[in-house]
Every structure is written in structure tokens, then in C-alpha cells.
Amino acid sequence: MMRIHDHLEFWARSRPDLLCCRDDRRQWSYREVDERANRVGHALRALGVGGGERFSVLAKNCLEWLPIYYGAAKVGAVPVPLNYRLVPREWIHLLNDSGAKTVIAQAEYVAGIDSIRSELFRVERFVAVGGSAANGWEDFDQLVDAQPTSKPDAVTSPDHELYQMYTSGTTGLPKGAVLTHAAINVNLQQITSAMAFSPGMGVLTVMPLFHAGAAVASFAQVAVGGSAANGWEDFDQLVDA
After folding, report:
1. 222 in helix, strand or coil?
2. Closest alpha carbon to 59 in 115, 122, 118, 103
3. What single DSSP character describes residue 203?
4. Of these four, 194, 195, 204, 216, which has the most CB atoms within 10 Å of its CB?
């Protein structure tokens, strides 16, 4: 049984220049995403997030999601994606319950996290994506870009935890559901056998990547060498054109 990042590394070796993902501003090949994932893996270690340890990600759909998921997989760190549609106070339980030591958040959510920081008992490091570092926040791009592109030397297995996602909490507080590489790989086999994927095929990502539906769909796209496009367009740019 393969690990999730084995798929990415296969395409980075066999077809490095194949488009892996793009949005309205950037596009990354499989080689670039794999190298970025390696840098993220090293960065997580630099942040003190080791194998089996949790860190949270709070972001709308963006290209950074793939290197974060795959970089974490390479070093055995466990992402805890947060629903950005929740109000800040609803993030408190998810962060404290998961034991996340680091929060990686897009700049627009920094103020929300700051408003509850005094109630976050386990978080030690705060990292901002797409914004200047301030008030104890570190810069994600600077942190990642300072790392080597070589593959981290961590050893992970298909039975290792891949991510911890929280339920909606309709019958009480949200509960952290933990899935392994092996469990997701079985799901990928089902998806790719039922759909006519092929290398280079475009896959539009419109579901939020904090959700299992979008995450697994993205893993399936990578498994077959597809090209993901972020489904969110900029309204002002669209109208002004």
C-alpha cells in the first residue's frame, strides 16, 4: 500500500513539468509542488511539529494547500484543517481538543485568531500566509523558502495518520476524525476506478479544501497526474475586465 505522497513523487519524477495546480495568478508543475512540499516538511520540523503531532491550517482554497498536505505527509505531521466559515470562538474547541502546536492561517484570519489567542492552551507558533509577520506571527513564505528542496529523511508508513478533520458538531461538540494513508488510498482506488481520469486532465476544485470531500478529490487528481484549478475567481478583476 502506498503513502499519499508517493503519488506526488511519482509524477514529479516521471513527468516533472506536467501542470499540477494553478489559480488565476500562479501555476505549479509536479516538480515544483513536490519541491515545495519538501520545503514545507522541513519547515514543520523547524516549527517543532514532529511525527504524529498536530498543526492547524485555516485558509480558503489556494495553491498552498497541496504542499501543506503533502509536506506534512512526508514528515508524519498531522494537519488539522479548520472551517473558515466558523466564528473565531468556534475554533477554540478544535484547536485545544486537537492539541495543535502551530496555527498556519491566511492573513485575513489573523485578527480572528488573535482575538482568541488567550484561550488557546496548546498553540505555540503562529504562521501567516500571504501577509506580513506581526504581533508574534511568522511569515509562511519566508519560513518555507528558507528550507532545502531535498526530501526530508522521515520514515512514514501507510498506517500513519494523514489528517484529523472535525465533524460539523450537529449532535454536540465537533469530534476529530483521524484517517490514515491506507484508508485514503482505498478511497482513491474507488474514485479513480469509477472516473475516467488521465494525466494532464483538468480538475476544477470548488469545494473548500478544509473538507474531506475536496481533500480526497485533490489527492485523487494527484494520484492520476491531473491538473487542479482553483474554482474561485476574483469578482473585482472579473467585472473590471
Report:
1. helix
2. 103
3. E
4. 216
109: DSSP letter: G
- Determine which helix (DSSP H) or strand (DSSP E) holds 56, and give its type and residue range: strand 54-58
Structural contact between residues 104 and 57, judged by C-beta atoms closer than 8 angstroms: yes
- In 3D, which of 208, 194, 213, 156 has the Cα closest to residue 4? 156
For residue range 177-230, what is the model confidence (pLDDT) as tens digits?
999 999 999 999 998 888 777 888 888 888 999 999 999 999 999 999 998 886
Other Cβ atoms closer than 10 A to 132: 10
pLDDT digits (tens, 9 = 90+) for 86-145: 999 999 999 999 999 999 999 999 999 999 999 999 999 999 998 766 788 999 999 999
What's the rounded Cα separation, in Å, for the pair 19 and 201? Answer: 9
In this prediction, residue 11 carries a pLDDT of 97
